[in-house]
Amino acid sequence: MTTHTIMTLIDQYGYFAVIFLIALENVFPPIPSEIILTFTGFLTISTSMTVWGAIIASTVGSVLGAVILYAIGRIASPERLNRFLGTRFGRLLRLKPTDIEKAARFFNRRGNGAILFGRFVPVIRSLISIPAGMSGFPLGRFLALSTVGTLIWNTVLIYAGSLAGNHWQAIVAQFEVYSHWLLIAVIVVLAIVGIVWFCRRRHLAQTTSKMKELD
């Protein structure tokens, strides 16, 4: 979706367009929330839209999109994933049901922070809803954390757009740089965690194999 299309929709349909576009952005991450929110903030000084109205509309859209992905995660439950791992294609992943259980336990322990702070990271703010659903993370708590996280993110960008006025696109450029480097940092951290997990698992497997040989 082009920037021109986004601007036209918001200009014509106001809050309804904001709800729709932000919900869509959550489900399809390539749609940039920075443009949607900062342009909406700019419109609050030149149209009948208000800052608080824009914040509420964008937060409703964010939570709606998050719930859709959460529901997808619930449908793709650990039980279904375990059945898939038992198929020929699933065995290629070299994952065991215990790995899925460990992942679910980890998310239940660390899920609060992941959901809350994940709302500030592009792409991650969309994907984080799926493992939340898969792990059976409580829906009420998921909604509360998602609402708080998106409320903070949306408020910052909408206020920035309203303060920047005609220069709102400069704000978008700054946030795109922030989003780019933050996403890279998250990917690097996840890669390191993945490598450490893989090495530990491999070491444990080798140790178990040697112990069996000694027996």
Draw up the topology in text.
Blueprint: H1 3-27, H2 33-43, H3 51-75, H4 78-85, H5 88-91, H6 97-118, H7 124-127, H8 129-134, H9 139-164, H10 168-214
Helix pairs in contact: 1-2, 1-3, 2-9, 2-10, 3-9, 4-6, 6-9, 9-10
Explain what the structure shows.
There is one protein chain. This protein has 215 residues and is mostly helical. It has one domain (3-171). The chain contains 10 helices and no strands. The protein has helices at 3-27, 33-43, 51-75, 78-85, 88-91, 97-118, 124-127, 129-134, 139-164, 168-214. The model has no long low-confidence stretch (mean pLDDT 76).
Most strands sheet: none
Rg value: 21 Å
Please, what is the average pLDDT?
A: 76
Number of helices: 10
Looking at how many chains there are and whether they match, the oligomeric state comes to single chain
Membrane topology: Multi-pass membrane protein
Subcellular location: Cell membrane
Keywords: Cell membrane, Membrane, Transmembrane, Transmembrane helix
Protein name: Alkaline phosphatase
